Amino acid sequence: MQADNLNDIQARGAEARELLVFTLGSEEYGIDILKVQEIRGYDTVTRIANAPDFIKGVINLRGSIVPIVDLRLKFGLGDPQYNEFTVVIILNVSKRTVGIVVDGVSDVIQLDKDSLRAPPEFGASVDTAYIEGLGTVEEQMIIIVDIERLMSSDEMALTDVTARA
After folding, report:
1. Domain span at 116
2. CA–CA separation, 25 vs 78, rounded Å?
3. Backbone phi, then psi, for 118, in 5-degree steps?
4. CA separation (Å) from 89 to 2, 54, 148?
5. Number of domains in the chain
6. What are the helix (H) ranges across 37-157?
7. Strands across the sheet with 36-41, in order?
8. Where is the CheW-like domain (predicted)?
9. What is the pLDDT of residues 82-116, one digit of tens each?
10. What CATH number corresponds to the domain at position 107?
């Protein structure tokens, strides 16, 4: 499975991929820049009853109801601290618009296939299904997230949240 992910990454082309790099705690993550619609400052959201904790609620984005997911909570990285650096990345995934809350956005980088490594294998105790691989830029390690797979997973229940909203 992990080797398949790396082969998929490399099969997307020998040229560099552009990634939006964001932070959660002390770690840096990257997502495909082509999935990003816009980046906004964090603002209050309308909570949805009985939604998982990591689904913060919904916002009205120019007439569209957009579910907001806090990735720090989703990845179990401790309690989020919302401040002036906290942002919402608005994504277009699986033919719908979704927002993710992150601690901050740091950069847009180009990562070539030689800088990619397969995600580590931890066995059944750690779910790495949403990690495409690990990238390195100079001394910086970036965890590349398959945001499409993460946002369209059954556990996200985003279709249920948007239907109730």
Report:
1. 2-164
2. 9
3. -65, 150
4. 27, 15, 14
5. 1
6. 71-74, 147-151
7. 36-41, 87-93, 96-102, 64-70, 55-61
8. 16-156
9. 999 999 999 999 889 999 999 999 999 998 877 78
10. 2.40.50.180
Mapped onto helix, strand or coil, the DSSP state of residue 62 is coil
Judge contact between 97 and 88, C-beta under 8 A. Answer: no
User: Which tokens sit at 33?
Assistant: 């820049």
> Closest Cα to residue 91, out of 133, 33, 9, 41?
33
Spatial CB neighbours of 38, under 8 Å, sequence gap ≥ 6: 89, 90
If DSSP codes are grouped into helix, strand and coil, which group holds residue 52? coil
pTM for this model (two decimals)? 0.81
- Rounded Cα distance between 121 and 111, Å, is 22
CB 42 within 8 A of CB 101: yes
- Pull the structure tokens for residue 36: 């990003």
Nearest CA among 78, 16, 73, 55 for reference residue 162: 55
